[in-house]
TrEMBL record:
<feature type="binding site">
    <location>
        <position position="769"/>
    </location>
    <ligand>
        <name>substrate</name>
    </ligand>
</feature>
<feature type="binding site">
    <location>
        <position position="772"/>
    </location>
    <ligand>
        <name>substrate</name>
    </ligand>
</feature>
<feature type="domain" description="PEP-utilising enzyme mobile">
    <location>
        <begin position="425"/>
        <end position="506"/>
    </location>
</feature>
<comment type="similarity">
    <text>Belongs to the PEP-utilizing enzyme family.</text>
</comment>
<feature type="binding site">
    <location>
        <position position="748"/>
    </location>
    <ligand>
        <name>substrate</name>
    </ligand>
</feature>
<feature type="active site" description="Proton donor">
    <location>
        <position position="834"/>
    </location>
</feature>
<dbReference type="InterPro" id="IPR023151">
    <property type="entry name" value="PEP_util_CS"/>
</dbReference>
<keyword id="KW-0670">Pyruvate</keyword>
<dbReference type="InterPro" id="IPR013815">
    <property type="entry name" value="ATP_grasp_subdomain_1"/>
</dbReference>
<feature type="domain" description="PEP-utilising enzyme C-terminal">
    <location>
        <begin position="522"/>
        <end position="872"/>
    </location>
</feature>
<dbReference type="InterPro" id="IPR036637">
    <property type="entry name" value="Phosphohistidine_dom_sf"/>
</dbReference>
<dbReference type="InterPro" id="IPR018274">
    <property type="entry name" value="PEP_util_AS"/>
</dbReference>
<protein>
    <recommendedName>
        <fullName>Pyruvate, phosphate dikinase</fullName>
        <ecNumber>2.7.9.1</ecNumber>
    </recommendedName>
</protein>
<dbReference type="GO" id="GO:0050242">
    <property type="term" value="F:pyruvate, phosphate dikinase activity"/>
</dbReference>
<dbReference type="InterPro" id="IPR000121">
    <property type="entry name" value="PEP_util_C"/>
</dbReference>
<feature type="binding site">
    <location>
        <position position="770"/>
    </location>
    <ligand>
        <name>substrate</name>
    </ligand>
</feature>
<feature type="active site" description="Tele-phosphohistidine intermediate">
    <location>
        <position position="458"/>
    </location>
</feature>
Length: 874
């Protein structure tokens, strides 16, 4: 097989699997050469050579040496220079070229080919002995470092000693001084290492290649491959090309050009060019870095090569790649060389700008633009951010648990959060960790900070769900509950002091920082238009509050896929009526308490229907176990007892009676509805009356969707639907009008999957509750999973947390089964998903494949889901 691949402007040895055979740099140089842009001529040793060397004995095989000699001869011919020649010495830059960026590999060795003789020939050629010797010195240092494992600091000491003896400061002043320094280097190597830098260029090259190969096995490179999943035997390519004298004083330098202005998308070079220092001094540029954007085509005074030519080359590469490119280039004595190109890195905002611009220019189509944006990257655009100024006081850091920045007064309890929020004061809820009873505190807070917990802790999951910025596990901070103080970075903060948290970076910052609100217009909106045209699945939001419902619509939600009614009872006075209902001793008592909740529910639903203006709204009946609403602390228990005029012991008894070992598998969902049908009846009444009210106001009928949670038996649904239908008939009779509505169920238990065909007989729609479904299929508690699933991921037992990304093989297979069964019974059944995974791009791809009709996710994830749903169809 071919070992060595040559390249020069206009011609490169081709290979089909370029980046695997030649590595990134080698493949890229070959590409640039074939695009007829100026590159330094050279050759690449393919990765197969690395494998050959590994399997062989010591040193480089004879055949390879022979090939190397041939490649050198070719290069001598192309450059008109000679390796160890008597005039115009050929010098090489030798670089490792792996198929992916990889730390731990050998750094470039420059000026291979210099020796005691060629250094003087080069000095004569360039009429610059200092430059030639400077290069030689650098070559010896990097050769010794790579091949002989000499610490570069040793050479600093030697140079210091020589400088002191010979009386120079920065570098020797004449040839004799340079020779003395070089001799001293070699003497040291000989004495300490028992080896010197060889004088024969070919030997230098062989030794550098061999040593560079060895760095493939460096611990850093090895662990990087492990993490990135790059095979151990992928192997290393090595590229050698003719040196460019880009550091020679006159008309030389190094630069980086980007084919566009990334912020405007305008097609004009940006980037910079660094002049060699003496040249910069000469033309009075300080600092000697030129902004390419300020250079005009004819600015030969400042830019030593031809700007128009550079622009033309970069354009050609951009056109070939079909994306904005960044190009490294060098100028050596006025001659331009392109060294490397890559797709330019950009922020999410820039990526969108560029994608839209490319569509406008007809360079790519909408589908391609959709595919170019990582849906998850939109997250950074959808949340408030702030500018990183140098005067920010960082109090500590934790996990970036839910993105976005938030500013507010510190509060340590959810009650206090509620009180301040009632006064419209923004708060940050600071807790060691959060519990279900903190949900109302989290709802009213601008952001949440916890001292303990990771990115799947209760705080993190809830915060993401309701779109609150959240930092978890800020372990260096300490809460003193007794004094209600927060101790951080040697400071003591009190309740009411202002802090800012950044849930995107995990930072906790003292004081208020001006926040930048996301803009969903312009290019962002255009990209969303592309996505909306391309996608098949609808995207709804999980929300129950008016504020979030409005933001969901602003984010493009096409309805509400899950309104968790229990969340509507945690706030303010409502929880009192709820407690009254739960603590009631009989049905009459419960009905009385429910009477108080009815108008509250009705007005909540009316508002949601109005905001959603004709879009579908799925309202789920009460789901969690009742004990979640009951007071926990002694103080709260006493308060509840006195409010209800009952003895404290009554409250305690009821709490004890409702206690469950496995609340998640306990008395919740439709089980609650079956035990206490009056709850369903009240909720159904509230929904129907709200639908009529909102419909009358809008002049257009509202069609509510009522969803029954946690069904496993068809008969459960029969029972609950029976109650709903009965109430519907009653309300229609009372109000003298027709109501169209649908009743469906969540599919979130394995039994419901298996019986999906019979359940579908009476369900108008299914919404897969992938949170509970994952919990019950795995038998893993969704509230405790964070403690051990991260270990599973680390150990490679599972690839991803199944509570974040759908487990296609297990849970996914079951969903597909239920879809098939349901459609067999009822071909027109509406099918959606409303678990956390509904907003996860990888899961969305699966839901598209499975043929679901819609996904529903938290409002902030709606644009992400719209884009991901579009990608899934392309
Ligand atoms: C689910 O289980 O996936 C779901 C959406 O319901 P909840 O998270 O409220 O249990
Ligand atoms: Mg559920």
């Amino acid at each position: 097989p071919k070992r060595i691949f040559t390249f020069r402007r206009g011609a490169a040895d081709r290979t089909a699997d370029a980046s695997e055979a030649l590595g990134l740099k080698g493949a890229n140089l070959a590409l640039l050469a074939s695009l007829d842009v100026p590159v330094p001529p050279g050759f690449t040793l393919a990765t197969s050579v690395w494998r050959e060397v590994q399997s062989g004995g010591d040193g480089l095989p004879q055949e390879l040496r022979a090939d190397l000699r041939m490649a050198i001869e070719w290069l001598e011919g192309v450059t008109g220079r000679g390796f160890d020649g008597d005039t115009r010495p050929l010098l090489l830059a030798v670089r490792t070229s792996a198929r992916a960026q990889m730390p731990g590999l050998a750094e470039s060795v420059l000026d291979v080919g210099l020796n005691d003789r060629t250094v003087d020939i080069l000095a004569a050629e360039l009429d610059d002995p200092a430059f030639a010797y400077r290069s030689y010195r650098r070559f010896i240092e990097s050769y010794a470092h790579l091949v002989l494992a000499v610490d570069p600091a040793e050479f600093e000491d030697i140079a210091d000693a020589e400088a002191a003896e010979a009386g120079w400061t920065e570098e020797p002043g004449d040839r004799a001084g340079w020779r003395a320094l070089i001799a001293r280097y070699q003497t040291y190597l000989d004495a300490e290492i028992g080896a010197v830098v060889p004088q024969t260029p070919l030997e230098q090259l062989s030794a550098v290649i061999e040593a560079a190969y060895a760095t493939w096995r460096s611990p850093l490179a090895t662990s990087h491959r492990l993490i990135q999943g790059i095979p151990e035997n992928a192997g290393l390519a090595i590229t050698a090309h003719a040196m460019i004298f880009n550091e020679h004083d006159h008309n030389s330098g190094t630069g980086r050009a980007v084919s566009r202005d990334l912020t405007t998308g305008e097609s004009r070079l940006s980037g910079e060019f660094g002049l060699v220092a003496p040249r910069a001094r000469e033309i009075g540029e300080k600092p000697p870095v030129l902004d390419l954007g300020t250079l005009s085509a004819g600015d030969a005074e400042r830019f030593p090569a031809d700007m128009a030519e550079l622009t033309e080359h970069v354009r050609r590469i951009e056109a070939h790649v079909g994306d904005v490119v960044e190009v490294d280039f060098m100028v050596g004595d006025g001659e331009l060389f392109l060294m490397q190109s890559r797709v330019a890195r950009r922020t999410a905002g820039e990526a969108i700008r560029i994608a839209v611009q490319f569509v406008d220019e007809g360079l790519i189509d909408e589908a391609e633009a959709i595919l170019r944006i990582d849906p998850n990257s939109l997250d950074e655009l959808l949340h408030p951010t702030f500018e990183r100024t140098s005067d920010l006081v960082v109090l500590g850091r934790g996990m970036p648990a839910s993105p976005g920045a938030a500013t507010g007064e510190i509060v340590f309890t959810s009650e206090r959060a509620q009180e301040l929020a009632n006064e419209e004061r923004p708060v940050i809820l600071v807790r060691n960790e959060t519990y279900p009873e903190d949900i109302h505190g989290m709802h009213v807070a601008e952001g949440v900070l916890t001292i303990r917990g990771g990115t799947t802790s209760h705080a993190a999951v809830v915060a993401r769900g309701i779109g609150r910025p959240c930092v978890t596990g800020a372990g260096a901070l300490r809460i003193n509950a007794g004094t209600a103080t927060l101790h951080a970075a040697g400071k003591v903060l009190r309740e009411g002091d202002t802090i800012t948290i950044d849930g995107t970076s995990g930072e906790v910052i003292e004081g208020a920082v001006p926040l930048l609100r996301p803009a969903l217009t312009g290019d962002f909106a255009t990209l969303m238009d592309y996505a909306d045209r391309a996608r098949r699945m609808r995207v709804r939001a999980n929300t129950e509050t008016p504020i979030e419902a409005r933001s969901a619509r602003a984010f493009g939600a096409e309805g509400i896929g899950l309104c968790r009614t229990e969340h509507m009872f945690f706030e303010g006075d409502r929880v009192r009526s709820m407690r009254e209902m739960i603590l009631a001793s009989d049905e009459t008592g419960r009905r009385a308490a429910l009477e108080k909740l009815l108008p509250i529910q009705r007005s909540d639903f009316t508002e949601l229907f109005e905001i959603m203006a004709g879009l579908p709204v799925t309202i789920r009946l009460l789901d969690p176990p009742l004990h979640e609403f009951l007071p926990q602390s002694d103080g709260e228990i006493a308060e509840t007892a006195s409010m209800l005029g009952v003895d404290e012991s009554v409250v305690r008894q009821r709490i004890a009676a409702l206690q469950e070992f496995n609340p998640m598998l306990g008395h919740r969902g439709c089980r609650l509805a079956i035990s206490y049908p009056e709850i369903v009846e009240t909720q159904a009444r509230a929904i129907f009356e709200a639908a009529i009210d909102a419909g009358e106001k809008a002049g257009e009928a509202v069609v509510p969707e009522i969803m029954v949670p946690l069904v496993s038996l068809r008969k459960e649904l029969d029972f609950v639907k029976g109650r709903i239908d009965k109430v519907a008939a009653l309300v229609m009779d009372e109000r003298g009008c027709e109501i169209t509505y649908s009743v469906g169920t969540m599919i979130e238990l394995p039994r419901a999957i298996v019986r999906a065909d019979t359940i579908a007989e009476i369900a108008d729609f299914f919404s897969f509750g992938t949170n509970d479904l994952t919990q019950t299929v795995y038998g893993i508690s969704r509230d405790d999973a964070g403690n051990f699933l991260s270990t599973y991921v680390r150990q490679g037992i599972i690839e991803r947390d199944p509570f974040q990304t759908i487990d296609v093989e297990g849970v996914g297979e079951l969903i597909a089964l239920a879809v098939e069964k349901a459609r067999r019974t009822r071909p027109d059944i509406s099918l959606g998903v409303c678990g956390e995974q509904g907003g996860d791009p990888a899961s969305i791809a699966f839901f598209e494949q499975t043929g679901l009709d819609y996904v529903s996710c938290s409002p902030f994830r709606v644009p992400i889901a719209r884009l991901a749903a579009a990608q899934a169809t392309i």
